[in-house]
Each structure stands twice: as C-alpha cells, then as structure tokens.
C-alpha cells in the first residue's frame, strides 16, 4: 500500500465523518466534483447530505461554519486556495477567533487551506498564510510536512474545540507517499527532530522540511551535520524543542516559505535570541521567500522561495560565522 | 415565488394583548436606553451608548415574533427586540457598567453582548457578518434533523452595502434557509444618507434580486410591524425560504450618544418617517382598548423602577480583576501550556 499526502487528508476526513455525526464538510466544489484538488473525492457519495457545495462566498462559508459550530456541529471548511481565505479573513479572525474568549462558547471549526507554491501558480494561488493567522489570538495553526502528520493532525484538528487553520501544502499533495497511515501520533504543539545533527539547528515546517532534508544531505557530504526540527504546528510553537536543539548545536537557521516580515521565522529567531542567547555561537539567521508577490514564471519562482540550494548556501554561511 | 408587498395595519382588537405587551417592552427599552444615555453623560459607562430610539416598534416585533428555540442576532439598536426575546435587563446594565457578572465578563461590552447557547448571538462590529452566522446555525439545525427553527437578524441600510450582506443573503437563498433578515432603513449609516448608500429604488429590490420574499413596512407603526414580522417569521417557519423585511423609519438620535446628528435633514424629521414609534404605539394601544391612560402611566413607573433597581444592584457588583483573569483565548486545555509560552 502506498498513500499520498492528499489521500491521507481525504482518509482523515472520511474517518472523521464516519466516527462523528457532528462533522460535515462545506466548501466550493467539494461535492460531486470532489474538490479542486480532489481532497473530498467520493465523500459526498459516501456521506450523503454531509458534504455540501457552497456558493463562491468565502466570507459566508466561514460565517456559516461559526454558526454551525455554535449549534454543536464540527464543520470542516475547504477553501480552494489558501489565498482566497483573505475574503473570509474577517470571519476567521474576528468571528471564529474571538468567540470563545468573548462568550465562553468554543468554536470547533477546521479551515483547510491548500497552501504554498507549486509550479506556475503565481501571485494568487501560492501564498503561505500561516504567519498571518498565527498572529491572531484564538486560532491554532497546523502545518503538516508528512503524509502521517497530514492524516493524524487533521483528525486532531477536528477533535479540537477551537478554530484550527490547517495549512496543507499543495506541493506535497502528490509528491509525498507513505506505506501506511499511523495509529498514534505526536500531539499538535510538539515539534519533531526529523534529522539529528550536531552543527546547526535548521528549524522549519511544511514543504520546507523536505528542501531542508535535501540541503542537509548536501552538507553531510561536506562534513557538516544539520539538525532539522519540523515544527508541525506553528501555533502553538514548540519553543522547548527548538531551544534544546540550539543548545546541542549552538547555531540556528529558521526557514519558511512565507514572506519574511514579522513571520514565523522572525518569531523563532526572536525567541531563541531572547531566551537562549547564551546558547548561540553565532547570530541566529533566517531564510524566507523574497518580499515580493509570488512570481508566475518557473525561473522566477525557483529563486523566490527557499530551496535546497539556497538553504544549503545559507547554512554554509552560518557555519562559517 | 417572489412576493414583494407592503403590509398595512392589520391588527384588530383580538390582537390587543400583543399590542399592549409590545408597547410595554418598548417602554422598557426606551427608558433603559435613556438611563444608559444619562449614565454615559455622567461618565459612568464603559464604551459608547447607542440608542434604539425610533426603531423600537420594528425591533420589538422581531423579538415577539420569534419563540424559544429560535435564533436572534440583533444589531446595536435592538434593545426592544432583545428584551422581547428574553434578554434580562441585568445583562444590558452589566455590560454597560462593566460588571464582571455580565454575560461578557468585561471581555466585550454593551451592544456586543449575548448568550449564544440561549439563541441570542453576539454581534461583531463588522456589518453583515452575523447574517451568515445565523445561516450556519440554521444549516446545523437542518443537519441535526431539527425543524421549525427560525433565525432572525437585523441590519441597517448602510450594512446592505457590504459584501458580507450579499454573500450571506445569496447563501440563505440557495439553501432556502428559514432566515428572517430585517433591514431598518433608517436613512443614515452614521452620517451617510441613503442616497450615498444605494442606488436602487428600494431595498426591497434586493429581495427580488436574490429570489427571496420581500416585505415592506412602515417602521414607525407598531401594528404594522407586528403583523409584518409575524407574517415573515411564519413564512420562514413554514418553509418558504428566507424572508426580507424592509422597514422605513428615521433614526431619532445620533449614531451614538457622542453624535449630535447635525446632519439629519430637518424635512425628514417632519415627514411621516420622523414620527416617534413610541407615541404612535401609545395611540394604537389606547385606540384598541388594550390599556387605559392610567395603566400606561403605571407601566411607565414600573419600568423605571425596574431599571433603577437593576442599576443600583449592578453598581455594587465587582469589575473584572486583571489578576484573576484567565488570559486564554482557546478552550483546549491540553494546548494551553504551549500557548502560555507563546
């Protein structure tokens, strides 16, 4: 058996629908069509009446999810591309994120955001929104990097009583495969050491984990051992695991596919600098996408986001500091 | 089928009791609003004060047409509707005065108060945003196999210009949800007149555009409002899909108590739109034989006593204590440790 990241997301939704009658799926083209990326393929036939096509109305989709959650349901919302969630931004950050704080009534919704870049996607189909949503109190932001995490973390997201922004990466949909789905998993809020190493802590998440692994291979051939920390969720952020890794290596490189300004990598660097300054043998560094809209042409896109090559280069520089 | 009609006064003597009940809620709402305005001027209120003056007839009719188990997402001028739907006077006073015992515990205040589990939804300030939330609640009830619920929510003429309004009205129409969307066409969104707000002849045209039933009503006329809202709620409950009610009236105050409303056209104040619905309602109550002038005087005195007692009680209550506050924005306790370090 071989299962892709996308199939794991579908399997998790099928399991959630089967096990909990409060779960339903709501989004554009999620019904008979099976979703823009086929993440809900066949689910409408399997669970009649519980996989609902919505009009092209992201604001209304998220508003309705909040209302349904208040009434005891556990909606899974699919936004076709993470970029389009900006239309629903108000409902996510002002309605869903504040409900529990204001009223004591939890808001158990999952917002699935097909995130990140793929070849030729351009400015409006490639964005990584995790830092934006992590900025707001009241939201949990998951960024799974593996098939196993895509499955187990989506199930966990459905079980959590708070709004979860589930940033699944489009590039990983078909590129990753696993032999089997896991029975147990690390909980959200716990990072994983994906590759141990003694020379530099490379803290990252989502698709960048795989670019980082390739960079680590490259540097291993040169005699340097990179330790890769996969955050898994960016909020909560597992500061303990990051700090323990930096204590072992003395160097930090934070890598993210999103833009640099005030983002997840900035948060990691700030924390390590503030709480672990004495652990560092060199200034903490970060590597992000360039601070421009995301380009369409493959030549430009390849240079816009961090890749194994640019990560390896950033790591080499940091090792020389 | 789309039905667009204007409902006239159809309340007969058999409805005298509901007329009297509605009038009592209106008296209570007006007096409570005035009390909060007085406290605001005395510097005793946390936040602003936004009155329902001139909109009580419309608002009370929504609260009275709904029944327990229904959902109501009121807007800022809906004190009368809130009270009629069952909101305690104490909830209003506590949020205005900042009592920790209020439903929002000092975390949100005044007009943003509510009790979602009791069907009284808490508004956010972004106009139009509550409509789809009510849609979602109605969708949930349908998925749960619970029929017979109606969800009502309100908006002003200004709010009809937002994307959220259009997305949500379309959504309700597509799903044929039992939504009653009430528009108080009160001539001004803060200071912007309707001429700068919309270009259609009537907001009822919006109903046609979305394939939902539209009902126009004179918002200064309690009898007409009661009849129209009863019809709209009944049709929604019977499965005729979303119902839009457009009430014509004039906001008889500024946007809030900080606003002297200098911009209001004096001709509007003198027009039928500028009638005070409370005075009209009193005449209707007397004409229907639903109460005597002496009874009405007694009601006025009773509501005043109730309000003074509530204010006196709340003024003794504690304010929120920042040191005792749980500074937690999520409910999932197993994740709180990690959030605490965030």
Write the layout of secondary structure elements.
The complex is a heterodimer of chains A (321) and B (342).
Chain A: E1 3-4, H1 5-19, E2 23-27, H2 43-46, E3 51-53, H3 58-70, E4 74-78, H4 89-103, E5 110-115, H5 130-134, E6 140-142, H6 147-159, E7 164-169, H7 172-175, E8 177-178, E9 192-195, E10 200-204, H8 208-221, E11 226-230, E12 233-235, H9 239-249, E13 252-255, H10 264-275, E14 285-287, H11 298-304, H12 308-320
Parallel strand pairs in A: 2-3, 2-4, 4-5, 5-7, 6-7, 10-11, 10-13, 13-14
Antiparallel strand pairs in A: 1-8, 6-12, 9-11
Helix pairs in contact in A: 1-6, 3-4, 8-12, 9-10
Chain B: E1 4-7, H1 16-41, H2 56-65, E2 71-73, H3 79-85, H4 89-97, H5 129-143, E3 151-156, H6 163-175, E4 179-185, E5 188-189, E6 192-193, H7 204-210, E7 213-218, H8 222-237, E8 243-248, H9 266-270, H10 277-287, H11 293-314, H12 333-340
Helix pairs in contact in B: 1-2, 1-3, 1-10, 1-11, 2-3, 2-8, 4-11, 5-6
